Amino acid sequence: MRTSLLCGSLIILVCGALATDARSQDSRGGANSRTPHGRLGKRIAERVADKLTGRHADRRAERHRVVEELGITTSQKELIKQARSQHGDALRVARESRQGARKALHETARAPQVDDAALNARATELAAAERRLAEQRAAVRAEAQRILTPQQSAGLQALRAERKAAHSDKRAELKLLREQRTGKR
Fold first, then answer.
1. CB-based contacts of 174, cutoff 8 Å, min separation 6
2. Cα-based distances in Å from 84 to 6, 12, 16, 76, 124
3. How far apart are alpha carbons 146 and 130 in whole angstroms?
4. CA atoms of 94 and 137, how far apart (whole Å)
């Protein structure tokens, strides 16, 4: 159990979710993206469904495959876990800040009288919060990258390129399907 948690933490930290997911594409504008609660409601519903259907188990298996393929040692896993825990509070604060800034922007935009200056100020706050979160994530990834050997780093880059190519192929396929669907109407 502990090994699988470490493996999961490592891969989330180093290269994010490697599995390309058609449902995430769908939530970005596919035919089934509308729910009574909008996209956020769809994401929450998908997370609940994921837990019930075991999709996380598939992700864990994929992460384990990557850890095995890269040859990451137990000591490296521990070092990465330590790095992640050191940045955990800062990441949480940055995520909460971004969430608060998003909420403030949405509330300002939905006000009966929209004030352009206030709207611009809220958008600036959101951009700053997103920048801080990106900086925190980059710091964690950089620290994890320093733990990997040059061979592991090269392998990780190859896996990222493979994931990016698969993602691009899926996006092109979905775009073609949307165009076909739009053309038929």
1. 25, 30
2. 11, 10, 13, 12, 28
3. 24
4. 10
Residues 25, 95 contacting (CB under 8 angstroms): no
CA distance 89 to 85: 8
Look up residue 148 and give its DSSP letter: S
Give 108-150 pLDDT, tens digit per residue: 999 999 889 999 999 999 999 999 999 999 999 899 889 999 9
Whose structure tokens read 């999709």?
Answer: 55
Q: How many angstroms separate the CA atoms of 14 and 21, rounded?
A: 19
**C-alpha span between 104 and 123 (Å, rounded):** 9
* Other CB atoms within 10 A of residue 143 CB: 17
Q: What is the pLDDT of residues 32-53, one digit of tens each?
A: 444 445 566 666 777 666 665 6
* Runs of H (alpha helix) within 16-149: 22-26, 38-53, 55-70, 74-109, 116-147
pTM exceeds cut of 0.70: no
Phi first, then psi: give them for residue 8, nearest 5 degrees: -65, -45
Q: In terms of Cα–Cα distance, which of 153, 155, 157 is closest to 165?
A: 157
Structure letter (DSSP) for residue 115: -
Backbone dihedral region for residue 30 (phi beyond 0: left; psi -120 to 50: alpha; all else: beta): beta
d(CA 175, CA 184): 14
In the chain, the amino acid numbered 27 is S
